[in-house]
Amino acid sequence: MADKKSIVIELRKISKTYSGTVETPVLFDIDLAIVKGSLNSIIGQSGSGKSTLLNLLGTLDKPSLGDVLVNGLIVHNMDDDRLAKLRNQTMGFVFQFHYLLPEFTVLENVLIPISIEKNGKVSEQDRQKAMELIELVGLSEKMNVMSDSISGGQQQRTAIARALMNEPDIILADEPTGNLDSDTSRSIYKLFCKINRDLGTTFIIVTHDDRIAAQTDRIIELKDGRIVSDKINKNVACPI
Amino acid sequence: MVLSLKIAIRFILKSKWQSLFIIFGIAVGVSVAIFISILIDSLQYTLIKGTIGNAPHLTITTDSNKITNYNDLKSKIDKVSGITKVYPAVDGNGLLITPNKNYPVLLKGVSFDKANDIYQLETRKIEGRLPLARSEVMIGKDLSVSTGAKVGDDISFTQANGSKSTLLVSGIYDLKIATVNNAWLFTNLATAWAIFGNEGTYTAVNIQVKDIFNADQTAVTINKQIGSNYKVDNWKAQNAQLLAGLQGQSTSSYMIQVFVLLSVLISIASILSISVTQKSKQIGILKAIGLKNGKSSNIFYFQGFILGFCGTVLGVAFGLGLFYAFVTFAKTPDGGNIVEPLIKWNIVLMTSVIALAVSSFAGIIPARKANKLSPIEVIRNG
Ligand SMILES: Nc1ncnc2c1ncn2[C@@H]1O[C@H](COP(=O)(O)OP(=O)(O)O)[C@@H](O)[C@H]1O
Ligand SMILES: [Mg+2]
After folding, report:
1. pTM for the complete prediction?
2. 3-state class (DSSP) for residue A43
3. Pick among B2, B285, B302, B373 to test the A interface (most A CBs inside 10 A)
4. Which residues in B lie closer than 8 A to residue A116 (C-beta atoms)?
5. A223 strand-pairing partners
6. Longest alpha-carbon distance in chain A
7. Where are the domains of chain B?
8. What angle do CA B371, B375, B381 make, to 5 degrees?
9. Which residues does residue A41 pair with via DSSP β-bridges, in sequence order?
10. How far apart are CA A64 and CA A52, in angstroms?
């Protein structure tokens, strides 16, 4: 087990029950610690609780029981604004439905996290950095087009560049290629792996594709709201 | 530019038709409010001008009906600001005697120097010329009709003490007020003095002011300057009842404006509320990446303000345009204006400020919705 300092996010005895007209218990007594710099995958069948788990890790949702720790701090008592700032500074999100702002260009979308941090006053340096990230995800020609006029794969690349903008400690991706064809999917995972290796960014990727999971450092498998297996892969090489 | 403002602008531009619709709605409301207020002010102004006509706004008289030191008085009056014309007169009552009937008339001796000509007889003249020579007189259109006196005719003016003067009609005027056209005879000062005696003294000093609605205040100021031996009458005191009626009319026009602006408020608020629902995906994702609740609310306050600003500017332009069109096309049969335009810019400004405040306020409901929106709702539901 890695030493305490290198843990980015930790779940302690987490349970989650959705309460609506009926109580739906989804997660049971989960303990999970994510090591800094690692490339992790969460697998499991549909409905096993993967998204719920990822949203708890991302402080977007609150557990029914247990604690979430981000960089060693318990988030339980933080208010909305404090959590917003925490997410802005430490996390990047990539969702299945890429969720770009269609009112903005590709470049502007990538600049949103820093724009939020600086309340709109982005510097030339920030702009430069955003352009480098866009180049990294291979979208330089599309930089100044509106974000709803590019393909799904290109939108997902834009979302990845956006997630990287504030140099987060961790990127949380929930079935990021769920809507993309297999070639595009493969190139997106290749990109994740490359960013992880080059920049040291921690990744947690929810996927139902075992072949993709097999190329990550750690595979956590959920079944009916419990972790049923947690495997470490040694010496994983990024796909070519 | 702060982020919330930038997002607000993009949201507005993205849903162009919806934004134009809101702006147009505000503009219609504002233009109606502005048009009504300007129209009512102008109609009142026209009515007042018609009522006081070319009559003096202020009249200085004494108990003895004799003003001996006109030059001294004038230099004192000139010190008061807002006065456009000062005009001494020698007036006297009498009868115009014709074979069939006697007509009560007022003979007014005035000077025809252009700068101080209150009655503007030169332009109001419909026949003949000004009564500049000795014993010449100008009569009103209506009196000419009823007496049959024409330019070049002699008429007979008899005072209460029985003394008779024969005067030559040099011209006929139309001051557009029947009571004046029926009764007033204009002559030069020398003739008036010759008829009434007291050469060099006046019976009244007439004054016109720039701001007729402030005439009562000016009267007080002048009275202070010239002393309490003189009485200063103003048109407002003489028309108190009319003014009270107009005040009531103004109040009802304010009510109309309040309801117009209220309906503007409700329509913007409801459309903006819908727009939060339309943009909930964006708000959710922005919050997930770190936008704070307050800033997400600001987006909608800014939207309300921007839409309100555009709508107000457009509305003021519409309102003024509508009014000028009305003034241009609403003409009397002889081509004169039905309404004399009177635009109170402070009212226009106030209406605009209120409309702007109201539209910004309309952002409150969507802003609170945005504030409460939780990013997880959006992310969970796709
Ligand atoms: N808001 C909710 N209210 C009630 N039940 C929910 C809600 N969200 C998810 N669930 C239920 O929780 C379970 C786990 O869902 P989820 O975490 O989305 O699983 P996965 O991502 O692995 O498919 C499912 O049975 C789902 O129906
Ligand atoms: Mg899921």
Report:
1. 0.79
2. strand
3. B285
4. 3, 286, 289-291, 295
5. A226
6. 52
7. 2-50+243-381, 58-237
8. 130
9. A205, A219
10. 12
